[in-house]
Design brief:
The protein has 352 residues and is of the alpha/beta class. Helix content is 44%, strand content 9%.
């Protein structure tokens, strides 16, 4: 979506935050525009106009010189200059290729909200997914053991599932989806523990629509126990997607990290046997798995899921990075589970 008509101050600030996230701008700058948008939404439009006239907009919490300029221009019926500059930059594709695969995707199976380590609300993530034309989006906040990411206890997960139901009810009642249908699916990114068990109760996992299982700890474990650990998780009947399987980081603010050692042939054979999709994690700093392992999984007969692993709304657009990589190695579209219609996806994810 390119903005070429004036927006209300809140919508202009929200769009700028989205474009900054999409371009992988610094977290501090993004937070400034998200905070200003929240303040603007909570402030009466008349007060915004009177403060703009009096020069006191920056007295409001979260409003600084840059965001004040955006609000002033929006109030005057103009497209803010900063927004225009970001839109111009956004016209260039994030990466070459992947357009056919991207057009086939119906949704995204891996995303986070501010309930764990994401930067925005569940509602904001869902609205952005609808803006992108998704038919479904899976909310996969972290499980309890990952305390550094504010992983959800069973109690908090129960609360979150109620919020998801409320959002889906509102979407249905208000007809908010662009394509006429959208559903926020109940999910989790569940930690694979040292012994291969999953970091959530069977009872809670059974209440979810889809489960991504990932290794987040002891990534340098030696190959033999790591292989047993991953295969045990894949064999768990509640596992649907094996997330960022090597754990590598190839760039970004967190630095780089080598990939975990494991018998990929054995792990992908287990994925194929148990109909567990191998995630093509589209985050540029992960690009996981590397090409040679994607080809190995392809030859093993695996299913795939191309996921953004988004921690902010603008990162939902990262899907194209994974699509370009899938296209490059020749992953057939019919083997990418998030090209499937929702009924087929849910039947695959919950065969029990």
């Amino acid at each position: 979506m390119t903005v070429n008509t004036p927006l209300a101050p809140y919508d202009a600030l929200r769009r700028i935050a989205y474009l900054l996230e999409r371009s992988r701008a610094g977290t501090f700058r993004v937070k400034a525009f998200r905070a200003a948008a929240a303040t603007t939404l909570a402030t009466d439009p008349g007060e915004l106009r009177s403060r703009a006239a009096a020069g006191t907009l920056t007295d409001l919490p979260g409003i600084g010189p840059s965001t004040e300029a955006v609000i002033r221009e929006a109030l005057e019926g103009e497209i803010p200059a900063y927004l225009t500059s970001l839109e111009d930059k956004a016209e260039a594709p994030l990466v070459a290729g992947g357009l056919e695969v991207r057009a086939a995707l119906r949704g995204d199976l891996h995303s986070h909200s501010d309930w764990s380590d994401g930067g925005s609300s569940i509602q904001e993530m869902a609205v952005t997914a609808m803006d992108l034309g998704h038919e479904y989006q899976v909310l996969t906040d972290h499980s309890p053991r990952l305390k550094v990411a504010n992983g959800l206890s069973s109690e908090r997960l129960v609360q979150q599932l109620r919020i998801v139901e409320e959002i889906n009810s509102a979407v249905g009642e208000l007809g908010l989806s662009k394509n006429g249908e959208f559903r926020l699916l109940k999910g989790i990114e569940v930690d694979i523990l040292d012994d291969g068990s999953l970091d959530q109760s069977v009872e809670m996992l059974s209440q979810l629509d889809l489960r991504v299982a990932s290794v987040h700890s002891k990534l340098a474990m030696s190959a033999a126990p790591m292989t047993r650990r991953m295969i045990a998780a894949v064999e768990n009947p509640r596992t649907n997607v094996l997330g960022h399987c090597t754990g590598r980081l190839v760039e970004g603010e967190r630095g780089t990290r080598g990939q975990s050692s494991f018998d990929a042939t054995a792990v992908f054979a287990a994925c194929a046997a148990h109909q567990v999709a191998v995630e093509i994690n589209a985050r540029p700093e992960r690009a996981d798995p590397p090409d040679e392992l994607m080809i190995l999984a392809l030859d093993a007969g695996c299913l795939f899921s191309i996921d953004s692993d988004a921690h902010a709304p603008g990162q939902l657009d990262f899907l194209i990075y994974g699509c370009a990589r899938a296209e490059k190695v020749g992953v057939p579209i019919e083997r990418i589970v998030n090209t499937w219609q929702m009924d087929r996806l849910l039947a695959w994810a919950n065969p029990l």
